[in-house]
């Protein structure tokens, strides 16, 4: 059985995983996070360093640093981890569309965002696979929350990113550029068609009604009990529910810094002036402001 170590990043309610073959010690990290406070611009590596400590203590060889999608609520530690541990950074090939959208939105330099330095070492297509020790890891394209969302499937475990939440959490919003509730419904159907005992591992848990942290359920439990998409909910009903909910949501607190950095796998912007780095914050005028 493949080994899975879970790390919970409290500030962003993100669950990050170190997945490894205990025989060969080959390992991968899924959905890493940097620590960040938006109001002060402080960025630090306490959470990522806990993972590094675990990896070193267990003498793991990091092969891959994976993203399930370009996150809008936390900043990826992929670049930091690659610098410390080696391994290849990878995501779904849909990230190219996300990059294009946000390079335009923020008026970023294409060179700085997508090249010439390879921010991602590999972009996966649907159906791609690779070996982690003696285990085959398959990549399933599961867009809808974002158009680059993928699920990593290994040894009866599916790391689903934000394609599903725990049954009592329902689903993630679909109103980011490239998101689509009907596409998400199809992706969830794809996950719900996996063998019933497959374990689904979530990227977030917001602990609805103050319950204890949970981040893993089976396909069977999700199909039966997910409050948004279960075996009794039609695509039309889900789209209506999801879209009406999304209309009420404000932008995520860390949307602008997160997507700006995550389209480059958490690579920091170049230093300017006296050696400081900056992120952009768009302004939206309401009414007339001179
Ligand atoms: Fe997300």
Give structural notes.
The chain is of the alpha/beta class. The chain has one domain: Metallo-beta-lactamase, Chain A (4-Layer Sandwich), CATH 3.60.15. It has eight helices and 14 strands. The strands form three sheets. It has a six-stranded mixed sheet with strand order 1-2-3-6-7-8, covered by helices on one side. Strands 9-10-11-12-13-14 form a six-stranded mixed sheet. A two-stranded antiparallel ribbon has the order 4-5. Strand 9 and strand 10 form a beta hairpin. Helix 5 crosses helix 7. The longest helix has 12 residues. The radius of gyration is 19 Å and the shape is globular. It starts with a strand and ends in a 28-residue tail after the last helix. The mean pLDDT is 94.
Task: Give the low-confidence spans.
Answer: none
Envelope shape? globular
Number of E-type strands: 14
Q: Count of helices?
A: 8
How much is the average pLDDT? 94
Question: What count of domains describes the coordinates?
Answer: 1
Q: How are the strands of the largest sheet arranged?
A: 1-2-3-6-7-8
Radius of gyration: 19 Å
Strand content: 15-25%
Provide the structure class: alpha/beta
Q: Helix and strand string, N-terminal first? A: EEEEEHEHEHHEEEEEHEEHHH
Q: Give the termini separation.
A: 63 Å
CATH superfamily membership? Ribonuclease Z/Hydroxyacylglutathione hydrolase-like
The major sheet is characterized as:
6 strands, mixed
* CATH topology grouping: Metallo-beta-lactamase, Chain A
How helical, in percent, are the residues? 25-40%
Ions and ligands: fe (ii) ion
CATH architecture annotation name? 4-Layer Sandwich
Text of the CATH class: Alpha Beta
């Amino acid at each position: 059985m493949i080994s899975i170590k879970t790390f919970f990043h409290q500030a962003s309610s993100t669950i990050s995983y170190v997945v490894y073959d205990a025989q060969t010690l080959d390992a991968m990290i899924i959905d890493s996070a940097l620590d960040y406070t938006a109001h002060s611009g402080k960025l630090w590596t306490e959470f990522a360093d806990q993972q590094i400590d675990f990896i070193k203590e267990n003498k793991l060889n990091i092969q891959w640093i994976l993203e399930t999608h370009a996150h809008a609520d936390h900043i990826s530690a992929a670049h930091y981890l690659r610098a410390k541990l080696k391994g290849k950074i990878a995501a779904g090939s849909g990230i190219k569309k996300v990059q294009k959208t946000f390079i335009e939105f923020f008026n970023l330099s294409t060179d700085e965002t997508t090249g010439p330095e390879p921010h991602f070492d590999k972009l996966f297509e649907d159906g791609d696979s690779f070996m982690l020790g003696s285990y085959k890891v398959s990549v399933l394209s599961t867009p809808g929350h974002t158009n680059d969302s993928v699920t990593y499937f290994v040894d009866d475990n599916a790391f689903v990113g934000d394609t599903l939440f725990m049954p009592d959490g329902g689903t993630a919003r679909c109103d980011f550029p490239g998101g689509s509730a009907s596409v998400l419904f199809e992706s969830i159907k794809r996950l719900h068609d996996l063998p019933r005992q497959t374990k689904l591992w979530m990227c977030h848990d917001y602990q609805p009604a103050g319950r204890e942290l949970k981040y893993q359920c089976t396909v069977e439990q999700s199909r039966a009990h997910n409050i948004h998409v279960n075996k009794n909910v039609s695509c039309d009903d889900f789209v209506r529910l999801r879209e009406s909910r999304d209309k009420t949501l404000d932008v995520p607190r860390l949307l602008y810094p997160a997507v700006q950095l995550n389209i480059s796998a958490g690579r920091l912007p170049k230093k300017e002036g006296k050696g400081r780095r900056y992120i952009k914050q768009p302004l939206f005028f309401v009414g007339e402001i001179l």
